[in-house]
Amino acid sequence: MKRLRKALVPAGGFGTRMLPATKAVPKELLPIVDKPLIQFIVEELVESGFEELVLVTGRQKGSIEDHFDSMPELEDLLAAKGKTDLLRTMQALSKMIRIVSVRQPYPLGLGHAVLCAKSILKDEPFAVLLPDDLIVSKKPCIGQLADVFNEFGRPVIAVLRVPDDDVMHYGIIRPRTVREGLHEVIDMIEKPPREQAYSNLAIIGRYVLPPDIFSALEETTPGAGGEIQLTDAIKRMLGRGSVLGLEYEGRRFDAGNKPGFVKANIYLGLRHPEVREELLSFIQTLDLASDLA
């Protein structure tokens, strides 16, 4: 089994759930306090030992790569002003991870985005991380999945227990428990009505996949909206070998929608040394009954 060292991040979508903010700014660059969403993903990969990121982008997404590039003019300015801490932070961005970019010419689904990177990923296992899913944890979420992959040599997807009333918003697995928090995926269903859900274990945007996923994707026909879904291809793999679902440890925010984005900013703002005290003081002054009247 080849070593897990590459990851893919799809970043070709329009970010319609966050319009109008995403009309000119990629959703991946929207800030959580002072750090864009995509940087949280890259830090998660670096902390988990990954070496290369395949960024699947679309039109007007070049600024994502620019964020991780060097900027000598800014570095010179920071040096001249004696802002050494900020200077080190900026210089570190370009050294975090090797980034390879590939275009997704049309937004035809997550499965299609993965297929666009086939010639780069080739015959290696790889991780997929959705930048909308911000997961705060002691051990990076993708590192937790990588540990399971290294132990069992099987595909692993992240799962989260959600309220029964929310199952219709997620892909849901039918589990067979291997041990506490780890399940074999027997079947999966996309956004089922509550009464048709196999469980309340929802698929979250972290995956570790073998290269066999490419043949499964090529056999997968487009579904609703003409999109090729990654979950449909993973479901095809259930008959070829075991797929595991890991209940990861951590707090997840759906930062691709407005409520989740605001919650993430509040939560991480209260953990940020420069922001915490002022934000906490402000929250304590709020009188929601009158402020919202």
Explain the overall architecture.
The mean pLDDT is 91. The protein is globular and about 60 Å long. α3 (72-80) runs antiparallel to α4 and α5 crosses α9 (230-237). It is an alpha/beta fold and 293 residues long. The strands form three sheets. It has a nine-stranded mixed sheet with strand order 5-4-1-6-11-8-12-10-9, sandwiched between helices. A two-stranded antiparallel sheet has the order 2-3. It has twelve helices and 13 strands. Helices cover 34% and strands 24% of the residues. It has helices spanning 37-47, 62-67, 72-80, 84-93, 110-116, 118-121, 141-152, 213-218, 230-237, 258-269, 276-285, 288-291; strands spanning 6-11, 31-32, 35-36, 52-57, 98-103, 126-129, 133-136, 156-161, 171-179, 182-190, 201-209, 244-247, 251-254. A hairpin with a 2-residue loop joins β2 and β3. The protein has one domain: Spore Coat Polysaccharide Biosynthesis Protein SpsA, Chain A (Alpha-Beta Complex), CATH 3.90.550.10.
